[in-house]
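Re: weekly structure request thread

Next one in the queue (209 aa):
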Amino acid sequence: MPPPRSTSPNALTAWCVLPLSGLALAACAHVSPGKNEPTSIKEESMTTANATLSGDEVSRRVLKLIEGLKSSDQLTPEYVEQQTGLSIQRAASRPDAFGTGAQLTPDWAYNLYVSKTPGDDKNKLIFDFSRTGEGHAPMTAICGMDYKQYAEALKGMGFEDSVSYGEHGRVDHYRFQRPTLSLEVYIEGESDETPEKVRHHCVKMITVE
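Done, posted below.
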C-alpha cells in the first residue's frame, strides 16, 4: 500500500481564525503558551497544565472522551472538560464554538475544537497535531501512541472500521463507526528517514460527528 497522504494544511483554518480569549493557540500563533497573558489565575494554571502534557497523554484523553460519547450532541464545553481534564474556552465571536490547544514540543502542538457543522446544527469535533516549527519535522515525538494503537482502542469501544482511498490508491482516511457516532482518522508516516518509518503510521487528525 502506498504511503498515506498528509492532511490538508487548511484543515484547521476555522480553529485558527476564531478568537478564543485567553487561550494560547500555539499551533496558530506559533508562540509558546507563556506569551499569551491569561485572563485569570485559574486560567493560567489550567493553560500551564495543558501545556505540560505529552502527545501520548493528550491522545489518551481524547480516546477517553470518544469512548463515553453516544452522539455528538454530548459535546458541550463542560462535558469535554470533564472527560479530558483540559481547560476549555469558548470562542469570543461564536458561542457554539469552543476548544483548547497547547505546545507539546518545539515542533508540535495539539488543537481540540468543537463547532457546528456548516449548514447543520450538528456538533463536529476536530483533534489535530500541528507542526509549529520545522516544516518537515518527524512525528516521532507525538507517535508513542500510533495509528495501530488508536485503531485497537477504537475497535475495543465497539467501532467498526473501513478505509477510504484517494488518488492513485493512496489512503485518504480511515472511518470508524458505531450507532449514532462516526469518526474519520487521518494518518501520516512517522518520517521519511527509512521505509519502515514511512510505513509506521501516526495519527495526524481525527474528526468526530
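The chain is about 25% helix and 25% strand. Residues 55-68 form the longest helix (14 residues).
Next request, please.
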